[in-house]
Amino acid sequence: xxxxxxxxxxxxxxxxxxxxxxxxxxxxxxxxxxxxxxxxxxxxxxxxxxxxxxxxxxxxxxxxxxxxxxxxxxxxxxxxxxxxxxxxxxxxxxxxxxxxxxxxxxxxxxxxxxxxxxxxxxxxxxxxxxxxxxxxxxxxxxxxxxxxxxxxxxxxxxxxxxxxxxxxxxxxxxxxxxxxxxxxxxxxxxxxxxxxxxxxxxxxxxxxxxxxxxxxxxxxxxxxxxxxxxxxxxxxxxxxxxxxxxxxxxxxxxxxxxxxxxxxxxxxxxxxxxxxxxxxxxxxxxxxxxxxxxxxxxxxxxxxxxxxxxxxxxxxxxxxxxxxxxxxxxxxxxxxxxxxxxxxxxxxxxxxxxxxxxxxxxxxxxxxxxxxxxxxxxxxxxxxxxxxxxxxxxxxxxxxxxxxxxxxxxxxxxxxxxxxxxxxxxxxxxxxxxxxxxxxxxxxxxxxxxxxxxxxxxxxxxxxxxxxxxxxxxxxxxxxxxxxxxxxxxxxxxxxxxxxxxxxxxxxxxxxxxxxxxxxxxxxxxxxxxxxxxxxxxxxxxxxxxxxxxxxxxxxxxxxxxxxxxxxxxxxxxxxxxxxxxxxxxxxxxxxxxxxxxxxxxxxxxx
Amino acid sequence: xxxxxxxxxxxxxxxxxxxxxxxxxxxxxxxxxxxxxxxxxxxxxxxxxxxxxxxxxxxxxxxxxxxxxxxxxxxxxxxxxxxxxxxxxxxxxxxxxxxxxxxxxxxxxxxxxxxxxxxxxxxxxxxxxxxxxxxxxxxxxxxxxxxxxxxxxxxxxxxxxxxxxxxxxxxxxxxxxxxxxxxxxxxxxxxxxxxxxxxxxxxxxxxxxxxxxxxxxxxxxxxxxxxxxxxxxxxxxxxxxxxxxxxxxxxxxxxxxxxxxxxxxxxxxxxxxxxxxxxxxxxxxxxxxxxxxxxxxxxxxxxxxxxxxxxxxxxxxxxxxxxxxxxxxxxxxxxxxxxxxxxxxxxxxxxxxxxxxxxxxxxxxxxxxxxxxxxxxxxxxxxxxxxxxxxxxxxxxxxxxxxxxxxxxxxxxxxxxxxxxxxxxxxxxxxxxxxxxxxxxxxxxxxxxxxxxxxxxxxxxxxxxxxxxxxxxxxxxxxxxxxxxxxxxxxxxxxxxxxxxxxxxxxxxxxxxxxxxxxxxxxxxxxxxxxxxxxxxxxxxxxxxxxxxxxxxxxxxxxxxxxxxxxxxxxxxxxxxxxxxxxxxxxxxxxxxxxxxxxxxxxxxxx
Lengths: 607, 607
Hints:
- Two copies of one chain form a homodimer.
- Chain A has 22 helices and five strands.
- By secondary structure, chain A is mainly alpha-helical.
- The first copy, chain A, has two domains: 2-452, Amino acid/polyamine transporter I, CATH 1.20.1740; 472-604, 3-Layer(aba) Sandwich (Rossmann fold), CATH 3.40.50.
- Chain A has a five-stranded parallel beta sheet, sandwiched between helices.
- In chain A, strand 1, helix 19 and strand 2 (501-505) form a beta-alpha-beta unit.
- In chain A, helix 6 (103-135) packs antiparallel against helix 13.
- The radius of gyration of chain A is 33 Å and the shape is elongated.
- Chains A and B meet through helix 18, helix 19, strand 4, helix 22 and strand 5 of A and helix 18, helix 19, strand 4, helix 22 and strand 5 of B.
- Strand 5 (597-604) of chain A pairs antiparallel with strand 5 (597-604) of chain B, so a sheet runs across the interface.
- Chains A, B: One of its GO terms (cellular component) is membrane.
């Protein structure tokens, strides 16, 4: 087993090697922005999908809506820039909301993001797999299996550790950005040189019958799903090389700029070329085909799009474990999420994320597209909460220049809040599960925290209840016969407490009882033997009753009762089924139901 | 949990109540012959299925073939009658072959029968379910589920105990016998009164083109599948009321007589009425329809046939556990098969049989008909071996009248051997798996026996190697912090061995190490603390190494090393995931890999 682990995730690293695992800006941009950048592949299309319901003439609205999304993007980037400086240890929406708005808003933000990262992985990998199976239709039947293999691969890469996965993952991201830059550049040049007829699209301001504010809001909400992922950097600040906040801010701004250029480029090209959304071919694919024809560049764009969609999942892998650490440090989720694995990553978070994404992919059989609105609303709720938290912070602390800061965060909060509400108003049928799982998660967080608190109170040495002293030991030794195992256990018992040993034998029949008593008398006349005739052939019931009796007497004189249980350790695992191993049942039963100490004396079979 | 068990299988019984569980002849006939009697429902049909391949004119051969089967039946009944008296403690083919032919023939017989009983259950229940779903075609889609429910019901009945299941199970068997008697009686009367034209069938001795000895042998082998189940009584003698051998013999003869009458009646009626086998309607069903029309008696026969087919499974449940006990007593299969359950049945055998039959039904999706030849050959191999064993016994011991006995068993052995060989020659495609699983099972039996033998040698107190004395104890206490749990465990350690306690702390970082040493020094200055800095964040590796060091020193002075491991016992099961519970991992690892004694100190959380 252990060599498999080595091969997959590499040699263990020392805690002191942690610094070497930190990443620079170029790699960070690749790792943390693949989610945000990849959404360019579907964001503009989401807008057109809403507008097409009233007709192609309405497509010009994508330009003002696109501008709206850019405004929202700017507000978010500026807001998150302020968050990074204010909270250089990361934690993003959870920490910000918790500190400024209180525990429950923090938990809502944290729970929302935890689920969201799982959705990110499932949705992105499924979408990437769809892109591949569209190219190779013969693979279509295996798409669930392919998606799961991708999740496993990404999980392993992340268990190997951050820098190594970053090296592998940065190429596709930069290739995707380069591909889209070429597409947009060539496209704009062709438009400028008049290759495309202006009749392909309705001009801006054309009146459209049937357009409504509701529809435009819905299109805007859909378009803003392109902004999911912009919060990832603020969660991952501790992964940056020092000075972390400066590096994180620069990465954030670079990402925002790239996202803005790519998003507006695609929206603009789609408008100019009059692209209409189709079921089988994506908008980006149509644009690329119009501009390049079905040549090398077309397939290059399709390929890098598929890759970046799959890698977008990696953003979830960077952010989820860090958020989980923050929640676990506050004792809202199990402590195990704070353990660093062999390669210094928070392995439990990584594995948990992988398993749950696979479950989601299996549950939806790879058809996770209709999870996109759920996923988007799960992002905008924490956006809203964290921006609101920042507003409170500025109002409370009033540092120099707080008015500008307040204005930025207020704008961010207001727009995020509106987008969230728009999702509820315009897509309730798809986002309602949020209303169930968010309260559910907060309740679970609360129960876990309460448990840890009560346990902590009980363990604290300063608490009033003193541990009772132990004056001596009574040793109970259940025996099944007269064998080497019993002899060995008896020797051990004698070394502990020579005068307080009770051997217990549980016969099923009277003759057996008498015969054993006689044999014992000859073999160990000095050790007291108690036989408990068990007509119902149960060993545990009479033994437990006897232990209760002994314990009652022992506790009067502050004696501790220890039960010695011999256990066979066969040389091969399968041999275990050849031995009744009732010792294991007895041990578990007594441990759970009686207040006794259980000593396991292993008896190793040599052959 | 325990009340569910009570409800399903009843209150536990005392060992002394075993006598009351023994069964009388009437019930025994019902329980132990349902397998044999039910095969009347398909045995004659199997003959016709072979003959129909050369044409309806060949059907008259079913009469001489039927006579052949009756001769075989007589030989088997007489042979088994002798076995019952010679081996009144049961065990049938396994015991007889083992004692007279040696270990390996015995194991071949035993292994063959073990598998066969599993096949009995799967095949019979599937066939019975088919009969039901033929009557109610809307249930057809659920036939696998229905079959599994029947297996579970029969398993529960058998776990409840023998007499109670016998009471429930005897009615359908007697109803089936009564129904067939009525059918045969009315049929013979109608033939005698000339209701059916003699042209319906070719007369005996008609020449048939294409008939061959091979075909006739094949038909005979197929027909002898009706004799599966006759060995059941000889395996189950210990279940009979005293005098068991007499009662068993009378039951055996009663069963043989019934089987002979029913089998020859059906063969005769099928011949007289000229019934030809059809895919959808069974031969018995065709006969019943001819004689009664589709009235009450027709459905009565169909219904009791379905019931007895399902109950035939019960024969497997009576015989399998007893055979398993015999094998387990000889240490060829795990000892657990000798444990009596709450209701004094050998529950492990019953449960094992139920599980494996369900697996077979699932694996073949309820289509177990083509397992019939495999099942038949699996019966005739032990038949042959046990009869051969009896031959050897008579030749060796030569009691009074041994020549007649020898002749009877020699005839039985010869016919059984011929039938077995015929299966291999004429149906090799269906029976070849026997050649794989029989050697496989014998090999497993051999390995298990060898393991028990070596273990027994090691445990025997008379063996040369003396248990080394224990001069004193070194107690190692891994600590994770300064808490009540540690305090409590430390108190216990002090009560065992006040001067040889080593507390071990495994810090991941240098600062942590220093801080803990300081705290410990203040808290427990008298207890030696060892800190094991673990840069790779593993607890088990440094701890194991340290234990090795301590153990090396301790063993020089015959000291025993005990590791005390505190374990949280939370009040609710799910709380376990909130605690790292590394203690459980450490315990298991040390127990399996180091020669130390592990003491678990439970710390029960009160809230």
